[in-house]
């Protein structure tokens, strides 16, 4: 029995020793992938002698920032999954850097970031013709690259069907958006802002059913907003501002039930809004200033109860401010300046307790301003009512006249005097307001009444 136990002990000890003396070899990079990585680094950056400084760039102990690697599932290699250039402490780009088309040959690459990389030497987005395994790239981000020119090639959209985030902004990209963009059916965010893109917005964008954010602002896009825009049911952000778009806002906009942010400002849009516009129940930000709308201010805006900002300035709206605007209890900003609005300011506007910016200047509003002292104090300098020739303020708040750019109302709720003649508070030499007796107050009102009578 003792002999049997000794045999078991010796066997276990031998097995333990054998496992300890045969450690797993360290994971290395595939030689072809490693060579491609070095070629890319030498095209972009002169920060290091990359080949000699990092003979195994994916080694866990490496100090190379801007690179991430993961072990392969079906092989014994480490693979590059992320490259980040331009933002410290990541590798910086040299003045002669050009877009490395080979970067799409890294078979396991999931994320690419180029920030302020192509600034001196003109370069274009290109994709290598060499056949590789299907790309698993999920994010391609190019920001602030003023020497990045040319168009976005349609081949890019065909080769990178796994993309979820595509950002090409603050560059000199031109040309039209290729209809092949519809191939990016996994896309969640598309940002092509601050470029020189022209032509019309392709109707094929409507096929991007998973898109949550679409931003094409600050380009030179022309033509109408495509009706297919309403097919993107997941869309939460739509920004087409600062282009050359014309025509009506399409009826399909009303189908974007998840929309939170919409900006269509600085275009040539005009005409009636869709009937379903008031059904955008999730909308919090509506920015549509600087469009020649040439319609009456729609009451439908008052149905957008979650609105925080409503900006409709410089858009040739006419008619009265709808009473329904008083239902926008979450509103923080209301900008209606430089339109052709008439009538009184709705009394309910004074009950919007979150308002901190209100601009109704340069219209044809009339009557007494319905704001009490607490409202005027809260909004302060962010309230602009100037250049409304028939708008006036209650005599009890005459000290606010000069600041608001309006005058005091007379007994007929008409202005008294010119816009600069608002009554100022009486003060002592120390700057404190003098208390006024009832007799003196009666005399002041009598003077105002007389002025109004002879006016």
UniProtKB/TrEMBL annotation:
Isomerase among keywords: no
Entry keyword Repeat: yes
Gene Ontology biological process terms from the UniProt entry: defense response; response to other organism
Pfam families, per the entry: LRR_1, LRR_8
One GO cellular component term: plasma membrane
Gene3D superfamilies according to UniProt: Ribonuclease Inhibitor
Subcellular location: Cell membrane
Signal peptide: 1-19
Keyword annotations from UniProtKB, A to Z: Cell membrane, Glycoprotein, Leucine-rich repeat, Membrane, Receptor, Repeat, Signal
Domain of life according to the entry: Eukaryota
Protein name: Leucine-rich repeat domain superfamily
Source organism (scientific name): Helianthus annuus (Common sunflower)
């Amino acid at each position: 029995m003792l002999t049997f136990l000794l045999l078991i002990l010796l066997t276990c000890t031998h097995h333990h020793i054998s496992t300890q003396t045969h450690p797993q070899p360290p994971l290395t990079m595939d030689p072809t992938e490693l060579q491609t990585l070095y070629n890319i680094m030498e095209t972009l950056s002169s920060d290091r002698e990359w080949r000699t400084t990092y003979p195994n760039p994916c080694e866990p102990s490496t100090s190379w920032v801007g690179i991430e690697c993961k072990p392969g599932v079906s092989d014994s290699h480490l693979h590059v999954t992320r490259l980040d250039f331009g933002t410290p402490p990541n590798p910086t780009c040299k003045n002669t850097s050009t877009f490395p088309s080979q970067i799409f040959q890294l078979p396991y690459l999931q994320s690419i970031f180029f920030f302020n990389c192509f600034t001196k030497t003109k370069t274009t987005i290109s994709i290598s013709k060499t056949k590789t395994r299907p790309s698993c790239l999920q994010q391609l981000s190019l920001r602030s690259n003023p020497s990045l020119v040319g168009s976005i090639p349609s081949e890019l959209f065909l080769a990178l069907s796994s993309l979820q985030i595509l950002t090409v902004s603050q560059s000199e990209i031109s040309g039209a958006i290729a209809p092949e963009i519809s191939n990016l059916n996994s896309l969640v965010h598309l940002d092509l802002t601050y470029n020189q893109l022209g032509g019309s917005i392709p109707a094929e964008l409507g096929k991007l059913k998973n898109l949550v954010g679409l931003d094409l602002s600050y380009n030179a896009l022309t033509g109408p907003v495509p009706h297919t825009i309403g097919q993107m049911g997941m869309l939460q952000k739509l920004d087409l501002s600062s282009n050359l778009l014309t025509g009506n806002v399409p009826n399909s906009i009303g189908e974007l039930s998840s929309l939170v942010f919409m900006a269509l400002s600085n275009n040539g849009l005009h005409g009636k809004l869709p009937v379903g516009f008031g059904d955008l129940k999730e909308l919090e930000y509506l920015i549509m200033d600087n469009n020649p709308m040439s319609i009456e201010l729609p009451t439908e805006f008052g149905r957008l109860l979650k609105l925080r900002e409503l900006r409709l300035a410089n858009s040739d709206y006419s008619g009265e401010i709808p009473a329904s605007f008083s239902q926008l209890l979450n509103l923080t900003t209301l900008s209606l300046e430089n339109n052709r609005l008439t009538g009184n300011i709705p009394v309910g506007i004074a009950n919007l307790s979150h308002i901190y910016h209100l601009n109704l200047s340069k219209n044809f509003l009339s009557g007494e301003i319905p704001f009490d002292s607490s409202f005027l104090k809260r909004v302060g300098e962010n309230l602009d009512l100037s250049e409304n020739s028939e708008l006036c303020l209650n005599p009890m708040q005459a000290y606010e006249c000069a600041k608001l750019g309006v005058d005091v109302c007379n007994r007929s709720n008409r202005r008294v005097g010119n816009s600069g003649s608002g009554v100022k508070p009486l003060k002592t030499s120390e700057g404190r307001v003098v208390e006024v007796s009832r007799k003196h107050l009666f005399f002041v009102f009598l003077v105002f009444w007389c002025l109004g009578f002879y006016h």
